[in-house]
Amino acid sequence: MTFSTLGLSAPILKAIAEKGYETPSPIQAEAIPAVLSGADVMAAAQTGTGKTAGFTLPILQKLIGGPKVRANQARVLVLTPTRELAAQVAESIETYGKHLSLTSMVVFGGVKINPQMIKLRKGVDILVATPGRLLDLHGQNAIRFNQIEVLVLDEADRMLDMGFMPDIRRLLALMPKKRQNLMFSATFSQPIRALAKTIVHQPVEISVAPANATAAKVKQWVCPVDKKRKSTVLTKLIHDNKWGQVLVFTRTKHGANRLTKELEAAHIMATAIHGNKSQGARTRALAEFKRGEVQVLVATDIAARGLDIDLLPHVVNFDLPNVAADYVHRIGRTARAGAEGEAVSLVSVDEFDELADIERLINQILPRETLDGFEPLHVLPVSSLTSRPPRKPKPKQSSNKGRRSGGADKRRDASAGPKKKRPARKSGNRGASAGAAGAKAGGGARRK
Ligand code: AMP
After folding, report:
1. 301 pLDDT exceeds 60?
2. Among 55, 171, 200, 391, which has the minimal tally of Cβ within 10 Å of its Cβ?
3. Residue-number span of the structural domain to which 361 is assigned
């Protein structure tokens, strides 16, 4: 299949070719005709599948030759949970629409509202926005929604997680009833389906990856390590493997700042991106990382959501996420659009519960590989994929407070089995199946 068979016109096809895309990704092959047909669409697609072009391309096509947008109005509204994602969607619209005369604009909080108000006076064909700032702009009469033809909710699951539902409901009440609705979400959970009922009507349902599946091409592995040695192990992995561009996740803002300092002390160029940083600082950090001027970007989950970094080869979970679904989002940063990637989780024994939740969610025991000289004091147990009831997420800060004396250690004796050593393997040779077999045998490999 090629893009030209999907009903897109020459200026859009030209922009796609210039971007270097040859074939539509599976989500694009399904979503583009569905959106062009005018149907509502509900798509389960993770970041990295090409979903942005999946809705952007047909929207641009639909707008060509339509009515002129009026002052302080928009014809298409794309809502995203984070500023970074909003900026990236807007960038995609600019890229794919560069040979068209349509206008687009992005608005989010954390920057001055006045320039946004001035720019909206003329109206804009496609407006990308985070919900809070959009409501502020509406409150100041800078935007009205009478002319909306298409509404897109991007990463709807994340919007729910981040508590945006009241804002979204307020916005929905302001929109014309007759409009096309497109909803994208990493998974179709029950709450997402409940939300969808209030937004989409007789939608075309598209699902390109099984719900909660991790990106197939990501080589995932776990490096068991004592908590206090994590930053040394990370430094060693970066130095020894000559990792050039690494996205590292910490659970807290404080943890991100501290790790950044430790990496810099080890002569690794690092910068942090989290909610306490100004929008300007976050945008700058991301741009430096994308240009390769910064080797390591240390991020918290919310700050990293939706980051689109082409061909990012390495993701490190310095702390495991509190919510298992975030693991899937995190590792979705690598192996994007068909490329290969590697995701390593540095796991201390107090994080066993989180690891077990993740392994149950992705239905896979992740291969364990200790680093020579950094074997943890306590062996990380191997979880059972079925036997434990789901765990309530811990309060946010608890992971940084040292090892708990509870269940993880006790379970270790029952389930760990003998610790087997495997010869160290070269990076890039770590197939998930081989690793899973090792893990199932109760042991783990070791790296030099
Ligand atoms: P997304 O899932 O929308 O965040 O897109 C993930 C990445 O895939 C982005 O870097 C896009 O530039 C890239 N991409 C999107 N569509 C294609 C395509 N058809 N062929 C190659 N790369 C693509």
Report:
1. yes
2. 391
3. 218-393
- Residue 406, CA distances (Å) to 230, 242, 276, 360 in order: 21, 38, 33, 20
Q: Which of 185, 207, 229 is the last residue of a domain?
A: 207
Residue closest to 270 by CA, chosen among 241, 303, 237, 245: 245
User: Is residue 327 a part of any domain in this protein?
Assistant: yes
User: Are 258 and 191 found together in one domain?
Assistant: no
pLDDT above 90 for 40: yes
CA of 95 to the centre of ligand 1 (A): 12
Would you say the CB of residue 97 lies under 6 angstroms from ligand 1?
Answer: no
Mean pLDDT, the chain, rounded, equals: 82
* Same domain, yes or no: 66 and 119: yes
- pLDDT digit string, tens, across residues 340-376: 688 999 999 999 999 999 988 887 889 999 999 999 9
Instruction: Output the residue whose Cα is nearest ligand 1's atom 19.
Output: 24
Same domain, 191 and 235: no
| Rg from Cα positions in the chain | 23
pTM of the full predicted structure? Answer: 0.60
Higher pLDDT: 62 or 293? It is 62
Q: Give me the phi and psi of 172, to 5 degrees please.
A: -60, -35
Check pocket membership of 48 for ligand 1, CB cut-off 6 A. Answer: yes
Asked whether residue 443 carries a pLDDT value surpassing 70, the answer given is no
Ligand 1 near 337 CB (within 6 A) = yes
**Same structural domain for residues 240 and 321?**
yes
Is the domain of 146 the same as that of 266?
A: no
Q: Supply φ then ψ for residue 245, to 5 degrees.
A: -145, 110
Residue 97 to residue 104: CA distance in whole angstroms: 9
Ligand 1 contact via 339 beta carbon (within 6 Å): no
Structure confidence by residue, pLDDT tens digits, 383-399: 766 555 555 555 544 33
- Owner of token pair 């583009």: 32
Residue nearest to atom 18 of ligand 1 (CA): 21
CATH number at residue 184: 3.40.50.300
Q: Are residues 140 and 247 in the same domain?
A: no
Domain-embedded: residue 407: no
Decide whether any atom of ligand 1 lies within 6 Å of the 336 Cβ. yes
Domain tally for the chain? 2
Cβ–ligand 1 contact at 413 (below 6 Å): no
Q: Which mutation among 25, 55, 312 tests ligand 1's pocket best, with the greatest number of atoms within 8 A of CB? A: 25
If you average pLDDT over residues 263-287, what whole number do you get?
86
Last residue of a domain, one of 150, 179, 207: 207
Q: Are 93 and 56 in contact (CB under 8 A)?
A: yes
Nearest ligand 1 atom to the CA of 92 is 12
1, 19, 56, best to mutate for ligand 1 pocket (most atoms within 8 Å of CB):
19
Instruction: Examine the domain organization and report whether 244 and 103 are in the same domain.
Output: no
